[in-house]
Amino acid sequence: MTPVLLKNPINLSSDDLNSVSPVSRPIGEPVSIMRSKVVFKSSTNATCAGVWECSPGRWRRQVAEAEFSTFLSGRCTFTPDDGPSIDLEAGDSIYFHPNTNGEWNIIETVRKAYVILPEVHQPV
Q1: What does the pLDDT average to over 87-109?
Q2: Rounded CA gap, 95 and 57, in Å?
Q3: Averaged over 73-84, what is the pLDDT?
């Protein structure tokens, strides 16, 4: 298979991020606007990778799959339902286990490169 290259996602313009929508579970005002560009999807759509950007605001995370992300710019916090708030900024990476629920608080528009991963069953 040919490797998939995402060249310098920090310098992508907002016009390059072709999917635009408000977050689906906002908490108060302002309502965050998300922009994204998917650069890879597996044949089963179980795995995908891309760049995601979000404007300031608060909202509930609703990604059911596992996710690994590296923050390229901006500043935010994520507060999991079962734990303390996590501060994130450019240069940080984070792994979310499947069904990690909580609240995003985007302080400064963030941009991240992400990979959504299928659930992996561990041998018993």
Answers
A1: 96
A2: 22
A3: 96
* Class of the domain covering 35-117: mainly beta
Confidence band, pLDDT 50/70/90 cuts, at residue 123: low
Q: State pTM to two decimals.
A: 0.87
What whole-number distance in Å separates Cα of residue 93 and Cα of residue 72?
Answer: 9
Distance CA 123, CA 19 (A): 38
**Annotated domain spans of the chain:** 35-117
Residue carrying the six token digits 């339902």: 81
HSE, side-chain direction, 13 A CA sphere, residue 84:
2
Place of tokens 């909580």: 102
Token pair listed for 75: 């500043």
